[in-house]
Design brief:
Oligomer: heterotetramer
CATH superfamily of chain D: Cytochrome-c3 Hydrogenase, chain B
Chains: A mainly alpha (about 425), B mainly alpha (about 170), C mainly alpha (about 100), D alpha+beta (about 375)
Order of helices and strands of chain B: HHHHHHH
Number of strands of chain D: 9
Shape of chain D: globular
Number of helices of chain D: 15
Number of strands of chain B: 0
Number of helices of chain B: 7
Strand content of chain B: under 5%
CATH topology of chain D: Cytochrome-c3 Hydrogenase, chain B
CATH class of chain D: Mainly Alpha
Order of helices and strands of chain D: EEEHHHHHEEHHHHHEHEEEHHHH
Radius of gyration of chain B: 21 Å
């Protein structure tokens, strides 16, 4: 996959490709520092650029402030507007408040494990952004197994949550710990199946090459495989336990799940990194499904990293939207949904996509031209709807015998005897 | 494999892995032992990255840290009364003796033999592994999948309680 | 400042012995299983070391075998833990010393 | 996990400090994994012995107590107590007074059901969005209460023989405005919740209450009607002029949490209907008859019952010709509705127990009195 011609010139002031600036800095440093040091500085520069400039502000602005403002609007209230101009300093105020709050440790808690859990919860979030491409050559580590790296690193915070829940020696947090582990394991399987469908078409595991594939073929994978995108969204919102599936810290049932005993900045780390993982998941979705930094050729004029950031926050809005409106599912409903619905549908999707990929190989006898992709896209969209409906009917969901949304109405009291229905309903 | 960074990371990984493996041996609380076990798995995944076997490193983290460690944790949860003190049997001393002798033999052989090694790493990427698994090693690959299904069914049969079996018998 | 095969093999050997010690000395069946897992990982490490350093016509066989070892280890862990749980259910203990049903 | 798994059941405290017990109310739950084996309610955290205090105060001084027992439905409580004393002392209330009482009681039902519906949706996990919507509508009603009676929650508006103050001119346009935008709001709630798949999955078939169990544990109000029994005090034993108004009783199908939710929504529609009829035919004349402050009703007892938002709200007053009642007792519908909670929650999961408790809509002030 040759790197396509890119208009951005090589001089440092061209903001369309921020890697020029880092290249200029590193060349400057190279003259009088040993190469080992420059290697470390390059990685640090990458970390500063990706995490401190993109993730932390978007965590604070979009994650804390934006989410509370948008959900406030959904609930016909204003949302934070006291601290700072129009409430923009609210996240910083929260952080300061959390820092000066006392981080309690319960008497019989497992102190060492309770102290380590937030650290292990935070570290993988930073690791996740090493493989995500912000622009044509704005990526810290373009490793050939980036997709697997993402799955591997995103399975570590589950263990940290379990450690937090188990070590807090509190019945509610034990509930939360067991729930989060059981749910994440059962939602990781359909997630991997859906992503395998994507890999079949793009042919590589590296995220940069996936973006280039989508750019060269002028099609986004979300149109090519809408079912994989839907499965990805549901599985990721289950793993991050965002609202339709936030049973690990279900406020109304088990107080705060595995976070019950945490207070002060320890809780703050968990809360902040929940949003960090949501942003990482939406960045990953933007790269894999929504064409990353490419926008059908427009990325020559608009800075590619701006396109990427816009797509990430667009996907993040889906999380905010579901959090603001949907109620929560029960644990056993989630489990049956994962194993009886998500997994079979993901498998069928994988089979259909594999046959398409083989057809694509045969029909274009190896040249893999672009034309057939649009045909596959239409077929896949129809297939997605058909599979979901057919499998739901197979599992026994029949819309006709639904309980009506309106009760029965009677004109006079009938005494203490059950009323045989007169008008409508049973 | 030269360069200061590589050697430094090797010694760090070796220290982390061996110390956490020792931790599994020494720690008093079974739950801490599992946490040390997880650190060992991550340390070994680091070794695989050092030996430029990326896919295996990622598979190791996903399968061992993501699934087997959780399996062990759930096993501990499902056996509440069994002692969680990670104690040793009376066979502690003979076990230590045996493993030190075995270790001595291994290290002697390693140091004594002169290995014909190649310097640059052969291309062992995902593509080659995929073609190998489905090419020359296709049969063992299918047998492995059958083995996994058998293990799955076996584990469920072992753990099912009489009521669930009775339940199924009725239907 | 170079790494050669001996260092990796020594780490693998030490890990294997540690796993053996854990497997033989632990009283709790789950502790024994942890020891076995460490031994399997040590074997994986040695396989990959030979695949990286050793001279061979097909270096890919190392990682292929590691994949098979990982699948077998996963299957074995699942069945062993299922065994431990069902033994716990009948005997209310998972201590290896007291699981001597065959003795009269 | 069956008991064969030997994870012996442990006691979980859905304790006084819990985000969804609607007040200081504790359920000691014996739990095996997620399944509940036994549930035991512990109450009395909010006991203020109102019934004993009322025996030292005159009949008029007792009216503020009735606001504070069920702080979400103070108008209905006032109405119940005042009817009991009027029955005891044989006082009759002018037409206008009765009509104003009906309007106020039905407005209070709207406000209380808004609270109940919002809190129930919040218990199923809809993260505060329905509660904020229903509270926005409830605020409009509380503003009307504040304008007419001076207080939003504990209104203390009704007096023996009528109501404390006459209606102000701005009252009618404000109520008309509420009647205009309540039905579309209920449609909006139905679209968001009743039609929502996850909400239906969480509440249909959860906490099913059979009609026999409902009648045996003498439940009343929406909980009874959702079990399929058409019983409403406003129809069965009309008081304060309810027979003049044409409205219907909402009855559910199989008595689960979902039915209680849709019965409450339907009752809000019927209340709007009643308010509109009462407002159109509001008679002129005095709003209350003159009653001496130190009223000394003849010896005897009287029991008056009112259809409060939570069920049959009864007041039993015994007089020994003294200025203060000899005995003052309240029949709290929440307390009696709780008696069915234990049978329903056994066998369900912890998450369902919270949803069931939310659907029964209890007010702890009324339970502990």
């Amino acid at each position: 996959m040759t790197l396509l011609v890119f208009l951005a010139s090589k001089n440092w002031y061209d903001i369309r490709d921020l890697s020029n600036i880092s290249r200029v800095i590193l060349e400057g440093l190279d003259r009088f520092l040993p190469s080992g040091i420059v290697y470390v500085v390059a990685v640090l520069l990458g970390f500063v650029a990706s995490f401190l400039i993109f993730v932390l502000p978007s965590q604070l602005i979009v994650g804390v402030y934006g989410e509370r403002k948008i959900i406030g609007r959904m609930q016909s209230r204003l949302g934070p507007n006291r601290v700072g101009p129009k409430g923009l300093l609210q996240p910083i105020a929260d952080a300061i408040k959390l820092m000066q709050k006392e981080a309690l440790t319960p008497k019989f808690a497992d102190k060492a494990v309770m102290w380590v859990a937030p650290i292990i919860f935070v570290a993988p979030c930073v690791l996740l952004f090493a493989v995500i491409p912000f622009g044509p050559n704005m990526i810290i580590a373009d490793i050939p197994v980036a997709l697997l790296y993402f799955l591997a690193v995103s399975s570590i915070p589950v263990l940290a949550a379990f450690m937090a829940g188990w070590s807090a020696n509190n019945k509610y947090s034990l509930y939360g710990a067991m729930r989060i582990v059981a749910m994440t394991i059962s939602y990781e399987v359909p997630l991997v199946m859906a992503l395998m469908g994507v890999v079949l078409f793009t042919g590589t595991l590296s995220l940069q090459e996936m973006v280039l594939w989508q750019k060269s073929n002028d099609i986004w994978v979300v149109f090519l495989q809408p079912l994989a995108f839907a499965i990805y969204f549901i599985c990721v919102s289950a793993e991050l336990n965002r609202t339709p599936t936030d049973i690990a810290e279900a406020e109304s049932e088990i107080v705060a799940g595995y976070l019950t005993e945490y207070s002060g900045m320890k809780w703050g780390l968990f809360y902040g990194m929940d949003i960090g993982y949501a942003i990482a998941a939406s960045a990953f979705a933007a790269t894999v499904f929504l064409g990353g930094w490419s926008f059908f050729g427009l990325d020559k004029y608009i800075p590619p990293w701006a396109i990427f950031i816009a797509k990430t926050h667009l996907f993040y809005f889906l999380f905010i939207w579901t959090r603001g409106t949907l109620p929560r599912l029960r644990l056993d409903q989630l489990m049956t949904f994962a194993w009886k619905f998500m997994l079979p549908v993901a498998l069928i999707n994988l089979v259909v996509v594999a046959t398409e990929r083989m057809l694509w190989q045969e029909l274009t006898d190896g040249k893999l031209t672009q034309g057939y992709l649009y045909l596959f896209a239409i077929v896949n969209i129809a297939m997605a709807v058909a599979i979901v409906y057919a499998w739901a009917r197979m599992l026994g969901y029949s819309p006709k015998d639904e309980t009506p949304m309106r009760p029965r109405l009677f004109n006079d009291a009938r005494g203490y005897v059950p009323v045989v229905s007169e008008k409508g309903g049973r | 494999m030269e360069g200061f960074g590589v050697v430094l990371s090797f010694w760090v990984l070796a220290a982390v892995t061996l110390v956490s493996a020792g931790g599994v041996m020494v720690s008093r609380n079974l739950f801490h032992a599992v946490l040390f076990l997880i650190t060992t798995f991550v340390g070994i995944a680091g070794f695989f990255v050092l030996l430029s076997a990326d896919f295996i490193a990622m598979a190791q983290v996903i399968i061992y840290v993501g699934a087997i460690a959780v399996l062990v944790l759930f096993a501990i949860l499902l056996t509440p009364h069994a002692g969680r003190d990670n104690g040793e049997t009376r066979m502690l001393l003979p076990a230590l003796l045996l493993s030190t002798c075995l270790g001595a033999v291994f290290i002697f052989v390693i140091v004594d033999a002169d290995w014909r090694t190649i310097s640059e790493s052969p291309s062992v990427g995902v593509r080659e592994l995929g073609s190998a698994l489905l090419g020359t090693w296709a049969l063992p690959f299918e047998i492995a999948s059958v083995l996994l299904t058998a293990a799955l069914v076996g584990a469920i049969m072992l753990v099912r309680s009489p009521e669930e079996e009775a339940e199924d018998a009725l239907v | 400042m170079t790494l050669n095969i001996e260092q990796f093999l020594i780490v693998g050997a030490l890990l294997f012995c540690l796993g053996l010690a854990v497997a033989l000395s632990k009283r709790n069946a789950i502790g024994v299983l942890m020891g076995v897992e460490i031994m399997l990982n040590a074997v994986n490490l040695t396989l990959i070391t030979f695949s990286r350093f050793g001279e061979s016509a097909r270096p890919i066989t190392g990682p292929t075998f590691v994949v098979f070892v990982i699948t077998v280890a996963a299957a074995e862990a699942a069945v062993a833990l299922a065994l431990a749980v069902s033994v716990y259910r009948n005997r209310d203990t998972v201590d290896v010393d007291r699981l001597n049903f065959l003795k009269s | 996990m069956s008991d064969q798994v030997k994870s012996e059941p442990f006691i979980l405290n859905i304790g006084p400090q819990h985000p969804s017990t609607h007040g200081v109310f504790r359920v000691k739950v014996k739990v095996d994994g997620e399944r509940i084996l036994d549930a035991e309610m512990v109450m009395g955290y909010l006991h203020r012995s109102i019934e004993k205090l009322a025996e030292e105060r005159t009949y008029t001084q007792n009216i503020p107590f009735t606001d504070r027992t069920d702080y979400l439905a103070s108008m209905s409580n006032n109405l119940g107590y005042v009817l009991a004393v009027e029955k005891l002392a044989g006082i009759d209330v002018p037409e206008r007074g009765q009509a104003i009482r009906v309007i106020m009681a039905e407005l209070q039902r709207l406000a209380s059901h808004c609270m109940a519906v919002g809190a129930f949706a919040n218990d199923t996990g809809a993260w505060q969005t329905p509660v904020m919507w229903t509270f926005r509508e409830r605020e409009k009603i509380l503003d009307i209460f504040e304008m007419t009676s001076g207080a939003r929650l504990t209104c203390n508006y009704m007096r023996i023989g009528g109501v404390a103050f006459d209606l102000r001119p701005e009252f009618e346009p404000m109520v008309r405005k509420i009647l205009a935008d309540f039905p579309p709001f209920i449609e909006q709630l139905e679209d968001m919740l009743s039609g929502n798949e996850i909400f239906r999955a969480r509440s249909i078939g959860v906490g099913v209450l059979s009609p026999e169990m409902a009648t045996n544990s003498s439940l009343s109000g929406p909980v009874l009607r959702s079990a399929g029994i058409a019983w409403d005090i406003r129809k069965a034993d009309p008081y304060s002029g309810y027979e003049k108004y044409d409205f219907q009783i909402a009855v559910g199908y199989n008595g689960d949490c979902y039915d209680r939710f849709i019965v409450r929504l339907e009752e809000m529609r019927q209340s709007c209907k009643i308010i509109r009829q009462a407002l159109d035919g509001l008679p002129g004349g005095p709003h209350s008859t003159q009653v001496p402050l130190a009223l000394r009703p003849p010896a005897g007892e009287a029991y008056a019952r009112v259809e409060g938002p939570r069920g049959e709200l009864g007041y039993y007053v015994v007089s020994d010709e003294g200025p203060t009642p000899y005995r003052f007792h309240i029949r709290p519908p929440s307390f009696i509705n709780l008696s069915a909670l234990r049978e329903i929650t056994i066998g369900s999961t912890v998450a369902d127990a919270i949803v069931i408790l939310g659907s029964i809509d209890i007010v702890v002030g009324e339970i502990d009195r």
